[in-house]
């Protein structure tokens, strides 16, 4: 029986967000992959790879992070956009070179590989990476040493997280090393046996865990970098050279900040009277707004087309803008796109249906 060449790994740390980045390669190959890089440490990561005589070919993201901007895009730019591929879960809604799902295999080199394990709950698109010999699993924020990731934003679900962790991570052999995405107390690694025995959250019954998580995390105290991190990480940190903003990829989805969700308290009639630009993104005949509005179609499969058409018609970045649609979802995405482009006075006008009649248009 042929013995597998051993894996070589480096664990790197970002002090600001307490994020761990991992380099993994086979001893018999020069190819390497990187897990969860941080933008501010791209030069460090390249230096470590060079010292290891390693050639970076793959960048894996365990999920769309909220507390830091990924270094994926900057690494692709520095090392060659075609030479390095980015990976993220298909369920995340994010854009990457390769979208993966449960049980997919990611080649490390020299016959070694990682298996993708779908571990949603912290976010819907969380994945973990299990080595082929089950000696290690890279879990992102699904499991932390003595804890787990939050579930109160980004579509988190406490019950789902509990099931994911129990079925996909803590069911591995006792000696499997658990490599977390963060640690805030100076710890570096744990094992399945340790977390099954000592983790104060994950040793609870499911109902107790859900109650604890839903009580402890109530949607407040969001990560300080969330507004910058999520839009950037939804496109794996690929930035425009001219605007320094996230590149808008066809078919990509955007996280929508709370401020662009429909607000029934906004006095839309007053804003309309004041001359706000109104753009109706509704599909079908009739639309949402019965008065005159800007004719700029919403391109669901290419958001960059909407943005370019809107900018051509409204070149003033200080112009008051109201986007509307039937549910507020398209308007929310549109507001996020326009804010990234530099527009400064944006409103989600879901309640514009009767405004035209109200003001006599």
UniProtKB/TrEMBL annotation:
Pfam families: Lactamase_B. One of its GO terms (molecular function) is sulfur dioxygenase activity. GO terms for biological process: glutathione metabolic process; hydrogen sulfide metabolic process. One of its GO terms (cellular component) is mitochondrion. The keyword Acetylation applies. It comes from the Eukaryota. It is an enzyme of class 1 (oxidoreductase). It is found in: Mitochondrion. Keywords: Acetylation, Dioxygenase, Iron, Metal-binding, Mitochondrion, Oxidoreductase, Transit peptide. Its main location: mitochondrion. Transmembrane segments: none annotated. Its EC number is 1.13.11.18. Coiled coil: none annotated. PANTHER family: PERSULFIDE DIOXYGENASE ETHE1, PERSULFIDE DIOXYGENASE ETHE1, MITOCHONDRIAL. Belongs to the metallo-beta-lactamase superfamily. Glyoxalase II family. This is persulfide dioxygenase. The lineage of its organism: Eukaryota, Sar, Stramenopiles, Ochrophyta, Bolidophyceae.
